[in-house]
Amino acid sequence: ILAVAVFFVPSQTMEQMVGLPGFSQMLPLIAPIFLSFFIGMSSTSACSISLEGKSLWIIRSLPVDTSTIFAAKIGVNLTITVPISILDSFLLGLFLQPDLIGWIGMFVIPLLYCFYISLAGLACNLRFPNFAWMSETAVIKQSAATFCGVMSGMLPVVGAIALMFVVPSLAAWIPLIFGVVIFLTTIFLCAFLYKI
């Protein structure tokens, strides 16, 4: 929605709506991180193991490695988030006209976040599984794993944007710092899930 809205709402009007002076100059820096916020709220992997419910024994009895099952759960989330991330990054890039580094960041940061939130959601679901549910709604909307998955997607973004406004001298470096932290966290989550 943001990627489409920026075509119709001038940056000065957006600055007035947000109420932050200098927002229009910070928009190219915030855009890839802001896209990550919405990616972080769409983790299907945060409830994918719990949704197996009482039929989990079927998966366990198959001659399939656990990592293959995890990869399938992660793959579903990536199938949803990656195409939208690429489209939104392209549209925002067209509007904001960043330099080459900005274009790269506009694509790399949200795509990296797609992998991060897929792994984080799965890790949350493994930590807080719920197999004794009566309705899918209890798992998808009301479980601790889903709450943990959504918070693990939203809090890093909120922290990065807050830091950008609290320490404006670091604003130009925040996307790079954010990307590096998310990359390292993704590597850590890969190692954690590989050991299970």
Outline:
The protein has helices spanning 2-8, 11-18, 23-40, 56-61, 66-96, 100-127, 136-140, 144-166, 174-195. The chain is mainly alpha-helical and 196 residues long.
Verbal overview:
Helix content is 76%, strand content 0%. It is mostly helical. Helix 3 (23-40) runs antiparallel to helix 5 (66-96), helix 3 packs antiparallel against helix 8 and helix 5 (66-96) packs antiparallel against helix 6. The longest helix has 31 residues, at 66-96. It starts with a helix and ends with a helix.
How would you describe this structure in keywords?
196 residues, 9 helices, mainly alpha, elongated
Helix count from the secondary structure assignment: 9
N-to-C order of helices and strands: HHHHHHHHH
Tell me what portion of residues adopts beta-strand conformation: under 5%
Task: Let me know the largest β-sheet.
Answer: none
Q: Could you list the spans in which at least 5 consecutive residues all have pLDDT below 50?
A: none
State the distance separating the first and last CA atoms. Answer: 37 Å
Indicate the topology.
Blueprint: H1 2-8, H2 11-18, H3 23-40, H4 56-61, H5 66-96, H6 100-127, H7 136-140, H8 144-166, H9 174-195
Helix pairs in contact: 1-5, 3-5, 3-6, 3-8, 5-6, 6-8, 6-9
